[in-house]
Prior knowledge:
This protein has helices at about 5, 10, 20-35, 50-55, 60-70, 105, 135-145, 150, 160-175, 190-200, 215-225, 240-250, 270-285, 340-350, 355-370, 370-400, 425-435, 465-480; strands spanning about 45, 75, 85, 185, 205-210, 230-235, 240, 255, 285-290, 315-320, 330-335, 405, 410-415, 440, 455. It is α/β, with parallel strands linked by helices. The chain has three domains: about 10-110, Arc Repressor Mutant, subunit A (Orthogonal Bundle), CATH 1.10.10.10; about 155-370, Type I PLP-dependent aspartate aminotransferase-like (Major domain) (Aspartate Aminotransferase, domain 2, 3-Layer(aba) Sandwich), CATH 3.40.640; about 375-480, Aspartate Aminotransferase, domain 1, CATH 3.90.1150. The protein is globular, with a radius of gyration of 24 Å. It starts with a helix and ends with a helix. The site of pyridoxal-5'-phosphate has 13 residues, from helix 10.
Amino acid sequence: MIREKTFSAAHLEIDRTALAPLYRQVYERFRAAIEHGVLRPGDRVASARSLASELGVARGTIETAYTQLSGEGYFSPLGQAGTVVSPSLPVRRASRRGPQRTGAAAFLGQALAEPVPPPPLQLGIPALDAFPRKLWARLAARRARAMTAADMFYGDPSGHPALRAAIAAYLRVSRGVPCDPSQVFVTGGYRASLALISRTLLARDDRVWVEDPGYTPTHEVLRGAGQLPVPVPVDQEGMDVARGMRKAAKAKMAIVTPSHQAPLGVSMSLARRLQLLDWASAAKAWIVEDDYDGEYRYAGPPLPALKSLDGHDRVLYAGSFSKVLYPGLALGYVVAPDSLRDAFATAAATWSNGSPQITQAVVADFMREGHFSRHLKKMRLLYARRRAMLAAALRKSFGEDVRIDLQSGGMHLIARFDRRSESDEELARRAQLAGLNCQPLSRRGTKAFRGEGLLMGFTNVGSAVHAQQLATELRAALDRRP
Ligand SMILES: Cc1ncc(COP(=O)(O)O)c(C=O)c1O
């Protein structure tokens, strides 16, 4: 289903005999569609030109309606990327039947149907312009041509053998994680990995430490599976393990992002890593290490994974290809402790058919033939440059009004506007109305978490000029009164 077509000229029902001007009718119909949830935040709307031609009215009529809808915050113009229903509007329950985008999908900005290019400053996506598409096309074509009958049958639900081997070899060398390919389970991404872990190791009402602030989809997957997330505060050294022990010493699991805490960006100190491992070993609890972007570190080499210190085999390592290749691949993996290998193989076979064979094989080739490590090396340099360009542009536009948190790694920065009286939610709302997808830091934590700021992805900032243009637009948006 293409959302743009589900609300088209046919739904606008323009009445040429009515007294209300045509632009007003178009405006009213769109407004009603948004208010009744037929059009939802982030949905793309037809271009003024194509809608005018479908309705047989002047383009200026539609443009006037669109300008009014944008001015009132219903639409967000995204320049060449078209116009969308403002992503910052609250999601309404649709009065028509149809799939809803809520929870983690809404949090991640996942497309409901037809994909649209991510808006500027979008968090968590790699540089889409720098992906080696030609090379990828060549590898994919080679695999597609060589496809045999065996490749068309069900694959191993634990993952394609070539990919499991390539991941194990990569983790051993680059992340200091010693593992055998049979411990690697390929999944549809981080949430699928967590669901697999939860099904294999947890029961209903088990308590699980999660970081506060943290990655909201983690909480949703756990709650969906009947577990009870226990938020544990994060400070400059990462998750505060002593607080976790005071809140729920008998928790069954802790989920952490030790390389680069999501969203604060701090690395977990060695002392905390050891404390966490000791707790898990004494409490017979598990640790999930979510290493979603540990490869991106700009000061010095990437830190070894927590898993590399795991003498008691309590850590499950979760990786994803979303940041290091691209999210549309929908591939992630779990490294299970040796003792859990069979339990994971059984769970994987019970719950899924595995991931697409050819796609896994292409990723395996990409890794085995050395393209992956070259790509990562290039991206580290590129992201360091793009991060510096965005930070410089923000400082130029906001001067003393901005405080920028540049952590040692990651794909986003945190800009703090301490001198402004508005909340970060209000600042984010204004930025989003101008088509800039900044996210408020405060929304990543519980009420006990006090941090405020705007999270901004810098990976797709193409040049210093582009960075300055974004910073200027942001300044104008934040200065605009509601
Ligand atoms: C903290 C964290 N974990 C994991 C992921 C990767 O998730 P996925 O594999 O679903 O793309 C992300 C992506 O944004 C993330 O921010």
